[in-house]
Amino acid sequence: MPPTVPQSSGDLVRIPGLYRRWELPEILKNHRVYRIEKAGAHQDGTPLVAVYADEPATPEIAVDDEDAVPPGTISPRRE
């Protein structure tokens, strides 16, 4: 079976900062689309990269009020 490629949910947005290649496992997550570009070098000569990512496929839940709890979570305890 051929590997599947996650579909991008929109334009790629730059993740703030410049990174060394060994820092990438801490930044990259599964099921996201990335573009990695050369971004110069650190003053010690280590190559740096800029990372661009698509927006996560899961929608954010907007909470209007402090007492509101997202669906599926436990209710806040009233004192």
**Rg result:** 19 Å
Order of helices and strands: EHEE
**Overall pLDDT confidence:** 76
- Alpha-carbon distance between the termini? 55 Å
**Main β-sheet, in a few words?**
3 strands, antiparallel
Short description:
With 79 residues, the chain is mostly beta strands.
Provide keyphrases for this structure.
three-stranded antiparallel sheet; single chain; 28% strand; 79 residues; mainly beta
Description:
The protein is mostly beta strands. It has a domain at 13-53. Helix content is 5%, strand content 28%. The protein is built from one helix and three strands; from the N terminus they run βαββ. It has one helix at 24-27; strands at residues 13-19, 34-41, 47-53. Strands 1-3-2 form a three-stranded antiparallel beta sheet, with no helix packed on it. The chain is elongated and about 45 Å long. The termini are far apart. The model has no long low-confidence stretch (mean pLDDT 76).
Could you give the topology of this structure?
Blueprint: E1 13-19, H1 24-27, E2 34-41, E3 47-53
Antiparallel strand pairs: 1-3, 2-3
